[in-house]
Amino acid sequence: MGLREDLERYREVGERAREDLAAFVQYGDLRPSAEDAISVPVKLVDLPEFAYDERARGGVGRAEDGPPRPGQPVGEPEPAAGDGDGDGDEDGKGDEAGDGHAGHETYEMNPAEFAEALDDRLGLDLEPKGKAVRERTTGDYNDVARTGPKGTLDFERLFKQGLKRTLATDFDEAYVTEALRVADWDVDDVFRWARGQSIPVSRAWLERRASDLDEPDRWDTIDAMEAACEMESTATRVRRDGVEDVALRRDDERYRHPEIREEKRKSVVVVNIRDVSGSMREEKRDLVERTLAPLDWYLSGKYDEAVFCYVAHDAEAWEVERAEFFGLRSGGGTRISAGYEFAAELLEEYPWREWNRYVFAAGDGENSHNDSEERVVPLMAEIDANLHAYVEVQPGTARRSNHGAVVEDAFGGGDDVAVARVHDEGDVLDAIETILASETEADE
Amino acid sequence: MTTDTDRLDKQRVADRLDGVARDARALAEKLGLDPYDVHYWIVDHDEMNELIAYGGFQTRYPHWRWGMEYDRQRKQSRYLGGKAFEIVNNDDPAAAFLQESNALADQKAVITHVEAHSDFFANNRWFGLYADEPAAAATLERHAETIEGHMNDPEIDRAAVESFVDSVLCVEDVIDQHRPYADDAPECEGEPADLAARLDDLGLSEDVQRQVFEDGWAEGREAADEREAETDLLAFLARHGKAYDEEAGKAVEYADWQRDVIEILRREAYYFAPQKQTKVMNEGWAAFHESLMMGEEAFAGADEFVDYADHQSRVLNSSGLNPYALGKQLWEYVENTANRREVVERLLRVEGVTWRTFHEAVDFDAVQDALAPPDAIDSISPETLDALDRVDDRYVDHDALDRARGGEIDVARHPWKALTTAGLARRHYSLVKPRYRGFLRSISRAELERTARYLFDDARYATVADALAAVDFEAGWERMRTVREDHNDVTFLDEFLTQEFVDANGYFAYEFSRATERYHATSTDADAVKKKLLLRFANFGKPTVVALDANHRNRGELLLGHEYNGVAIDLPQAKRVLERLFELWGRPVALRTITTEVPERELERARRQGVEPETEEVGLVVRYDGESFEETELGADETAALRADAVDYDTTPADWPS
Question: The SpoVR protein-like N-terminal domain covers which part of the protein (chain B) (predicted)?
Fold first, then answer.
């Protein structure tokens, strides 16, 4: 229907969003807001209108506790999501508080969108390569199970069920007590009568209550009692007294549980190798991050499943977590082949026939004597991968460094090997383009 | 395959809801509402997102903005989880959409909510301004076809149509929403409208007139009218606008498709205007009745009540200003004050009770007891039906009572069926509800005196009991129905947002302080709160911009004026609008406004002394000639003409923050 087209057009109209993407990659805060998430603060394109100056406008708030004192600082007004035109009439969004204008919103881009936007920006059309493997995978947390890890417990449901149960087993105790006061009635009589009236009283309760009852013969017959007393509804009682204890029951516990699906997945493993030797100052580290991080997102957006390995090296190599990868700095010398040796070991777990592989290395081009020619180039040729890349960061200079040149000379720009040089932020996007454009079509 | 299952699923949901909808309608009518018929449609989650993106309709003209809304909607529902959305359209019959996957309790809540909206559409006069028979869905569909037709016309550049639509949308709210929509763009040359008379026709209260329009405003505007001041910018464009021809480098007459676009978007703006003008009232009205029907009349069954309470609290209990909660509180206040007034007027006619002695002479606990509904009405069950024979005939629906006795009506589930409107008013009488127990007693001396002054001395009562026997228990609901017919958000807030209301509900105004670079609460004064609220709801919450001259500088340039009310316009954004307007005018466009500036030296002084800096108001005209902007300061007279002297929405006190 029409909306599909409107959505397409929206993406196209987002010219500014793409500009923002470039700016973001070059200057934005790349640290993810959550595990696996990319927060790309892309401005939502909207049409201008005559509006009040946001700050001059002020607003109205509602005190949560106690009357507010004039002069007291109040929080920043929240932007009202969707508090747009009020066309139609949408209920159920309790988030209309605040006076904000919806024109300056940002949204979290997910990797797939990021990849798509980057494709648009760079004019790329990289299709993930086959290598499909049938795999058991887990999906959204949509299923429920009766057991599971504590963190997945649906407490809202548990509480609601408990509350319902509490209300359902509630009865007017005073009223039932009066029934016990009917002459010649024993617990059995009252129990039968209560069941007939659908009063959820237990026998045990009746027995307990009957044991210390004053005035056991207040009423001659049950009819007399019923005529004189009136049963109070649960609703009335709850309104007056509230609900004290909510009986939470194990039976009501439900744990959210991922759906298990079987499907074909396109999987990728990306090995990031970085020189962490003494010469890698902060400026260089930052440029490496700006180049490698978007590549990671791009690839995780392109593939169903993406695994990332981070290898740090000076003269030795070791594996690190992503969080520390870009910030690391050690004192040692540099031997790039140590990184590739380690990478080759890691990749044994990801067989080439099932996995797409990318090996990205980054550094300032320095290497120990003859290591590039004698060890790195042969290792690169040996390791099967969709793409090998070397990102050379050299702030402020245009010097052709040793390692990058050696790799270029050895592979001559072909064979899915790319060398990209980054001197400042302005080069980042070009570098990314150079690398991604070097991958040739799948040949299998 | 799946569509068949889908359809069956929807059919099943629909069948289950059929009886619910019928009962809801019956209950709504018993509560005194008179809604348009409502056609309910069951839709799935995706369809619901699409409807929301389209502003509640199934077909709209092609535009990327719907795509943007859809995208946002999808993301929101993905990350925030499914919510019980409801959509209802102002139409006769009204069309409402229910989401298939909602729990039954949610569906019931939505249906009761929708019935109240439908009543509002049918009876509020601002909706009547657009048309007596809106035929909205059909109109919007026709619009979609027309615009799509132009876009697909090989003679017309699709991108040009899109861009033109964008430009018109930038000023879609610059219409005269206080006037009925007329098909022909109104001519204002030669017949300056009698504004003063028109204002009177609007039925605004004295207070509003004072609040919104300073004395002599109408006369001043009429004088301006001679210079063609026009609040309906879209109509003005249709009359005088031209397109800019890039190749020729000059203005040319609109093409037919351009006229179509302007008129279509103008008509849609008028169609949606009443909804935007009555958001607080309409949502409050729906929330009030939903709560009455679902909560107090137990339309949610005992097992659904918890789900419903959960739903309700999510909608109403968000922090900050929430139009739903504000509207509901105001309606409750209208109900309470009308009921209180009725009771007080009766009590003041009792021998020995005057406004001076009221609080001492009246035993409020006894009054509460007397006002409480009789047991037979308060709790109705199959066993207590006979008790209904003993209450006042006006309260009991005897026909229904007979059917209840015959087992045709289940009063255990629907006790309200045995009562009349009067009976339900008695049953839900607001002043005896626990949360309003103190409301009667809390009436101020001033209010008592005012009531006493205008009291007709047509009846006297010997005792309090006699006086209370004469109380009209429907006074609150009757007053509410009258108010829902005549008011819009501006007049509603103006009339009912009293100090008593503001105090009871904890509202306060806040402003941005240039000294601290933060927002601060400024006041809990009802006037200040009202100003800030009116700023948000009057004129769609946007600054008033009018067309002043179609032949500015004697060169056919467009001159707009921003009617300054103490709050500045967002100038960078306004400039972007001017760029767009150039496309619609074909010649240079200019906007006169007043900006507030703080000289660096003053900012320094204020910071040193710890006070708020004094701002300077500077008149400015911003002109865009198709290529660049030019800003010129205005002379004193021209600046003064923009300023609305009697209105100032700035509530910043001079002496804060201290």
Answer: 16-342
